[in-house]
Amino acid sequence: MPTADELAMSDSLDTSDLVSENVQFGSSKSAAIFAAVLALILGLYWLPELSGSASLFVSDHTYYFEPFSRYIGEAFRQGRLPLWNPYLYCGMSQLSVPSPGIFYPGNLLFAIASYSQALAGQMLLHQLLAGFGMFLLVSSFGWGRAPSAVAGLVISLCGYMFALTTNCTIAFSASCLPITLWSFRGIAYSTQLEEGIRRWWYMVIASISVFLLVAAGRPEIFAPGIGFLAAYCFIEGLLNRKKGVDTRLILAGWQLQVLAVLSGLALSMPILLPVAEWASLSPRAKGLPVSHALMWSTNGYDLACMLFPQPFGDLLILGNNYLKLVATRPTFYPYITSLFIGPVCFSLAIWGFFDRGWLWRKWLFIGSLSFLIICLGEFTPVAPFLVRTFPSLSVLRYPIKLMIFPIILLSIAAARGTKSLIANEISKTARITVLSVWIFAIVVGLAFLSLWQFHIVLPAKASIPPMASLALGRSIIGSSVIGVLCWLAAHFNAKGRLSRKHCALLILAGLAANLSAVAFCNKQMTARKDFYEHKQTVDTWVTSFEKNGGGSGRFLKLYFDPLETPSDYKIDANAVWTVNFFSYARDLLLCNTTLDARRRETFGYEASETGAYREMILSVVRKSGVDKAPSAAESDHRLLDLPLLHLCQSTGTRYLGSQVYKRKVDIRILNADYFELKREDRKMNLRVYEVKGATPRCYFSENWAWIKSAPDAMKSAVQLPEALHYAPLSMPLVERGSAALVPRQLNALAPEIPKAPEKAPESPYPDSDTIQVDRLDRSIHPVGEQRDASLQVASQAPNSNVTMMLDNPEHMSVSVMNKKAGFFVLCDHFYPGWCVFVDSVQVPLYKVNCEMRGVYLPAGTHLVEFDFRSESLKNGLMIASGGLFMVLCYFFLASWPSIWRFVKSTAGQ
Fold first, then answer.
1. Measured CA angle at 407 (ends 403, 412), to 5 deg
2. CB neighbours of residue 750 within 10 Å
3. Could you tell me if residue 839 is left (phi over 0), alpha (psi between -120 and 50 degrees) or otherwise beta?
4. Dihedral sign from CA coordinates of 758, 764, 767, 770
5. Do 309 and 518 meet the contact criterion of CB atoms below 8 Å apart?
6. Closest by alpha carbon to 561, among 532, 526, 589?
């Protein structure tokens, strides 16, 4: 592999330079020293988490990343790929969850370390990758070591990277952008210099960096990132053409760059194809509402925090009184609490943009402004117009995520400003501009301090109290003073009172100290090391019910964040209350924390749910009276809770959880005809119910009814209160058009499994075997069965016996003995990739009872096996094998001279 010296390139070379020489940017020793210093800073920052003495827990740590990371890590330790997750949404495709993805290399750390240790290790490595990649990129411009270190420090230690710990995969994907830009730049220049060996090394690095960019699982970053990369390569080619570079060489470089992108994308296909398969079924398939897609847009406070370090402290602390002053939606946590790059970086960037000798300055300015307008989201007409015109863009939700692109561009401008500063090439106008900015900021800061001193409340969207003015004033003045000191360094350098070396050291030390101090002082709060290990209250309760003969089954939460937290958990607005709140959320198995307890859940949070399933669950929960106070106006509680009963019967749900009170008003108790209140604890603000006559997870029914291939028909069976006699055990509803074609059986010795008859036996509709949506009424019940108003659930067919033989996530075996033909129903989510075998013969798999699985069985004793065999994964692996072959070819071409020398040496030549 070439050294750092050999990989130098320049953005301002003429034709003779391209042919005859390389511009040196410093030795490999310089790059190693920079990496070591950066690793030391990051190691100290992440030391509590790396040592296992602290746990990251805020927001999505608790709700999302820790549960999934634990599940993935345990599967890796067992030596298997976790393709299917049986615990959420009545089963979901873990393969289709891109974040955290099962194929991302860094996630292997979850198999050998605790969540916080593994995540801290990943964050350290990715921030180091971002900084080192930016160091290489700027070094390739030939600007020197100090500018390279400035850019590397900014991108690695900026607030964006530290604040996104709660959504770490965004930071992972963003950290790959600098090294990707550097490698693609290397492809272009090594092609123009006709240096074949280096070109193939760059191809290897570029392919792997594109794979990592995509595999991190955040399309919000990698999709615009690839567009950003394409724009850079195109503009660079045009500029090189103006310098007189041969068009053939530019075109050859573009071709290789496209080939590197294709190689990286091919390696990513085992991730992309399953995600694309899920996307067509997801709630986002038809786009999101504009208000949802632009929910977290960059506002004025976010932009201010790029220069002034979080004036109002940690907005993730529950009860922070300043949140309503600055948050776009005060009821939500900020998505990114800090975008800090600091006054040193900002001053240097201004000087960089004032450098008239820099050909790229207008392009960087245009790029920064364009990304900033998009990041402002709902606060300008541009983003809403784009989302309405191209609804698919709504998938790239929350514009503030894109702030990494302006930060990258500003860090490059800061590097250029550093070059100009050290070379004493900063114009008087540029110095005056920077000084004016910071003097104005000091005046604003003093104005805020005056408001505090005289106890003046400043009217705004939410009135700014004096203490808020004090916080703003201190933060603004503190950063502004650092900005003035930066100007003084330029002033003394221009007067000859500061040598170039001392000026470079001063700028680097000031920048590193500023970024590090802000990061350490505003570090995200942590909890005790055993935060994720305590036994959760709801799981303890339900386990005791099961041991006392209650039977096993799924759990469904009828509450969500924000919870009504018991008073015992609330303290003043500080980290203690925040820790207590998330501990309480875990006790209630909120969101995906059911994964930690390995308890099967009917619903979930932000995973590979299907749109129809989500809509069905939410509509039923909203129709129920679970969050309503008791009311005499309710004429029939049975009808109010009936859709909830139908949902539980269809999904194999046995236990429900709800709160006791909300806003100091008691929530009514669910209908006792359907749900038995097992336990209530007002101190915990918690109730747990058991569904009366709950359906088992799998059963056999001799009777069934065909319904049309329409989602509304399935949902209506669950949701309509008029469907009084909907009974999934005794009369499952089978969607006729849901079964895919199965391969033809080639084994002549295999048993013949007949297809399901076109007409259901003993159909309740003699003139039609297909139930219409508007006819789902009290007529749906087995012939001859009398059902009364108590809505007792009929047991499964008496002439059958169902025994679970093997229950693994991706494979299940069930023994079914049935004296009559009928449908075997498994209350697990129907999803592409599942296939079913009866006595080793593949047969059609049907959608039954609202998104569940069913298979027709003739009379007799059968072995029913369910296998998850994802075609999207199979196709993705085939394409990835081609991509891997391409990368190996690049590697072979790059290594061939060394291989040939080794062969000759072994032959004695």
1. 155
2. 12
3. left
4. negative
5. yes
6. 589
Q: What is the pLDDT of residues 113-151, one digit of tens each?
A: 999 999 999 999 999 999 999 999 999 999 999 999 999
835 lies in a domain? yes
pLDDT of residue 153 exceeding 90, the answer is: yes
Strand partners, 554: 653
Pair 804, 888 in one domain: no
Distances (CA, A) of 823 to 335, 718, 764, 788: 47, 19, 17, 25
Find out whether 798 and 790 touch, Cβ atoms under 8 Å: no
What's the average model confidence in pLDDT over 816-837? 94
Residue 642 φ then ψ, to 5° = -65, -45
In total, how many domains does the chain have? 4
Q: What is the DSSP letter of 708?
A: -
The answer on 645 and 770 residing in a single domain is no
pLDDT single digits (tens) 286-342? 778 888 889 999 999 999 999 999 999 888 888 888 888 888 777 788 899 999 999
Q: Are 128 and 42 in contact (CB under 8 A)?
A: yes
Q: Cβ distance 586 to 593 under 8 Å?
A: yes
Alpha helices in 562-698 (DSSP H): 575-587, 594-597, 611-623, 637-651
- Residue 585 contacts residue 531 (beta carbons within 8 Å): no
Q: Are 606 and 725 in contact (CB under 8 A)?
A: no
> 């003045």: which residue's tokens?
477
- SS3 (DSSP) at 841: strand
> Which of the residue ranges 48-52, 645-649, 779-783 has the most confident prediction, judged by mean pLDDT?
48-52
Tell me if the bond preceding 897 is cis, omega within 30° of 0.
no
Query: Tens of pLDDT along 786-803?
Result: 333 334 444 456 667 899
**Given a cut of 50, is residue 461 above it in pLDDT?**
yes
Evaluate if residue 84 carries a pLDDT over 90. Answer: yes
852-857 vs 846-848, strand pairing mode: antiparallel
List the strands of the sheet with 698-701, edge to edge. Answer: 698-701, 822-826, 852-857, 846-848, 733-735, 705-707, 770-771
| Torsion of Cα atoms, 341 then 347 then 348 then 351, to 10° | 140
Collapse the DSSP code of 898 into the 3-class scheme (helix H, G, I; strand E, B; otherwise coil) and give the result: helix
For residues 577 and 583, what is the distance between their CA atoms, to the nearest angstrom? Answer: 10
So what's the pLDDT on residue 203?
A: 96
One-letter amino acid identity for 591? C
In this prediction, residue 746 carries a pLDDT of 58
- State which residues form the domain around 710: 698-740+752-869
Same-domain pairing of 878 and 854: no
Is residue 82 in some structural domain? yes
pLDDT at position 282 over 80: yes
Residues ≥6 apart with Cβ < 8 Å to 840: 750, 863, 865
List, in order, residues 6 or more apart from 131 with CB less than 8 Å away.
Answer: 34, 35, 38, 152, 153, 155, 156, 157
* Domain contains 650: yes
Rg (CA), the chain: 31
**Residue 494 lies inside a defined structural domain of this protein:** yes
Task: Kindly state whether residues 229 and 118 are assigned to the same domain.
Answer: no
* pTM as predicted: 0.91
> Distance between CA 119 and CA 113 in Å, rounded?
9
Q: Is residue 375 domain-shared with residue 500, that is, in the same domain?
A: yes
Task: Return the number of other C-beta atoms located less than 10 Å from residue 29's C-beta.
Answer: 10
Say which residue the tokens 């964040």 belong to. 561
Which pLDDT does position 622 carry in this prediction?
Answer: 77
Residue ending a domain, among 526, 558, 589, is 526
Average pLDDT over residues 464-490: 93
Name the token pair of 602. 């009917």
45 and 81 housed in the same domain: yes
Return d(Cα 871, Cα 851) in angstroms, integer: 20
Same domain assignment for residues 674 and 545? yes
What gap in Å lies between CA 316 and CA 307, rounded to an integer? 20
Helices (H), ranges, 98-164: 115-139, 145-157, 159-163
